[in-house]
Specification:
The chain is mostly beta strands and 251 residues long. The protein has two helices and twelve strands; from the N terminus they run H-E-E-E-E-E-E-H-E-E-E-E-E-E.
Length: 251
């Protein structure tokens, strides 16, 4: 009697069985790993989102705090205050313009005028013609020149005045000296500066029958300014300093 032999395996059956075993092993391993990974993620502290950046302050435009060593006075019609710019080399003795805390450059604007001493007799005899050219400087407090400003105009009659200034002994209580001619000045102030100075440099005067003469002696009025204004972006407020809790005394 013959023994029944083993059934012959089909071609490729061993390879399929090995692949199935490998796939089963991978599934089992994944089932063991996933719960541990999920548990690890659940135990982590929540990630804090960064605080939003503070909003950028809007640009501000205002009349700056100004120290005028030589006030000319206030116009009787315009009610504008005029300040004389004196010739000097020391920024501390100039017109000081304070700049509030800011971010980025600051724009300084003002009107620059020449000065004329009025003579009714010269006007009536048509001998009052005078050409003025005034130069001033805008400087940092360490005496670094930021920019120069120039105004040039001609005077012939009282109509060439910007305004007459009150507080004098002339007719109507006006001063003999008054601003004439106007040049609108715009100066960019570097971000690093918190104060600037206006100083007179030189004044050239040319009359009808006199050659041009230039003046730059210290203390001499070179020009006048009015309508000072600054435009800037305010610096963001400083973060509040946290206060430490006070300890209560024992006993």
């Amino acid at each position: 009697m013959k023994r029944a032999g083993r059934r012959p395996s089909l071609p490729g059956t061993s390879r399929v069985t090995s692949a199935a075993r490998l796939l089963l092993a991978i599934v089992v391993a994944a089932c063991q790993i996933l719960p541990a990974g999920a548990q690890t993620r659940g135990s982590q502290a929540p990630v804090k989102k960064p605080a939003p950046a503070p909003p950028t302050p809007a640009p501000a435009k205002l009349v700056p705090q100004t120290t005028c060593p030589a006030p000319l006075g206030v116009g009787i019609k315009t009610r504008i205050a005029f300040c004389e710019v004196l010739a000097d080399r020391d920024p501390l003795r100039g017109i000081l313009i304070k700049i509030p805390p800011h971010r980025g450059p600051v724009t300084l604007t003002f009107d620059l005028h020449n000065l004329h001493v009025y003579s009714d007799e010269l006007v009536k005899t048509k001998r009052a013609f005078t050409r003025y050219t005034a130069t001033i400087g805008v400087l940092t407090m360490d005496n670094t020149l930021i920019a120069r400003a120039v105004v040039q105009n001609e005077f012939r009659t009282a109509a060439d005045f910007v305004d007459r200034v009150g507080g004098g002994a002339g007719p109507g209580g006006v001063k003999a000296v008054a601003p004439t001619g106007t040049e609108s000045i715009v100066v960019a102030i570097p971000e690093s500066e918190d104060q600037v100075s206006l100083l007179g440099e030189k004044l050239t005067v040319e009359g009808m029958s006199t050659p041009p003469a230039t003046f730059s002696q210290e203390g001499r009025p070179i020009a006048a300014v009015s309508n000072l204004m600054i435009e800037y972006r305010p610096a963001p407020p400083k973060p509040a300093t946290p206060t430490k809790p006070t300890k209560k005394g024992g006993g």
